[in-house]
Amino acid sequence: MSKLVLKCPRCGTVQYVKGDGPCWKCHTMVVFPKDGVIQVYRMASCLGKFGYSMEIYINGILFGYVGYNEAIRIPVPYGHHHVMAKFMDYKLSKYKGIGLECDVTPNNRIVYLKAARVIPGYRTNTTILEPATAEEMPPV
Ligand SMILES: [Zn+2]
Fold first, then answer.
1. How far is the CA of 94 from the centre of ligand 1 (A)?
2. pTM of the predicted model, to two decimals?
3. What are the structural domains of the chain?
4. Cα(47)–Cα(122) distance, rounded to whole angstroms?
5. For 7-65, how does the pLDDT look when each residue is reduced to its tens digit (9 = 90+)?
């Protein structure tokens, strides 16, 4: 399952959409950028059964949460974007994150990223965010 996520420019509500349409909260027409898409897939292959949400930020703006084995697609205009994935740390006291820079251009309109949280040791954990290919994404 992959979801298209947009942030309403007027009230800031993050919502899942199928296309252009009114914001469910403030009814502003939300038209999403047609230039490109950043797709983030949270891999289900990591160790442990930590089901905590992963937060996805684009250019410092929270765009939503990705559950286990889920993907979100975020329409973006052409340009340079900073993507960040954040997870709660093992004590559930603070978020730890990792960032990645990417460029969305007419020749590279869809940027695929895969994210995971791996727990190599009892008291350590690492968040992974790295480029991926379309074949590594779950079916839409
Ligand atoms: Zn709104």
1. 29
2. 0.80
3. 34-136 (2.60.40)
4. 11
5. 888 898 888 877 788 999 999 988 878 899 999 998 865 554 455 678 899 999 888 88
